[in-house]
Amino acid sequence: MFLKGSEKSKTPGETRKEEQRAKELVLKEADIIISTLNYSGNQILDCLRAEKNNGQPLINTIIIDEAAQCLEVECLKPLKFKCNKLILVGDPEQLPATVLSKRAQDNGLAQSLFERVYQCFRFSDEENPIKMLYMQYRMHPSICEFPSKNFYKGRLRTSEETAANRSQCAM
Asked: DSSP 3-state assignment of 64?
């Protein structure tokens, strides 16, 4: 490498710092950031914390998909961003959070945050923030019948378009 005049090569440390600043700039300017729950605890995302931005949260809404299947403590990681709204998406009738430790189970850690919130409102007279989506768009109507009858009190329906597309497949 030939250097002109006063140009000098950057040290690996300087290069890493520049890369870090570039990543932080991209994150801070993003309208949407998609991450796994595990990665939301990664240090690179710390630049989005309110404490690093004059107390102002940069993330307005966090959506946690498959929230009924993840451990409750995993849902706490993205809360460090002090968002204004947390949306948990999941199905309490499907696979639950997996906790292998008997000690953790005995101490009430064998459920997801979604399940804990769901149980609080399940039989409550208060306005329930948990909403069931009654229309499904994946399964053949014949396959949908079983979970609808056995888990969703007959409320799960197949969209007309899905039913028409799936009717081409003989069951």
From this structure: strand
Of the chain, the percentage scoring pLDDT greater than 70 comes to: 94
Cβ burial, residue 113 (10 Å; 0-12/13-18/19+): buried
Closest Cα to residue 156, out of 166, 143, 168, 167? 143
Tens of pLDDT, residue by residue over 155-167, are: 999 999 999 888 7
Q: What span, in angstroms and rounded, lies between the C-alpha atoms of 51 and 57?
A: 8
Q: Which residues contact 74 (CB under 8 A, 6 or more apart)?
A: 37, 38
3-class state of residue 58 by DSSP = coil
What whole-number distance in Å separates Cα of residue 68 and Cα of residue 77?
16
Length of the chain: 171
pTM assigned to the model: 0.76
Q: Are 74 and 49 in contact (CB under 8 A)?
A: no
CA–CA dist 165, 8 (Å, integer): 63
CB-based burial of residue 45 (10 Å sphere; 0-12 exposed, 13-18 middle, 19+ buried)?
Answer: buried
Q: Which two tokens stand for residue 122?
A: 């399940």
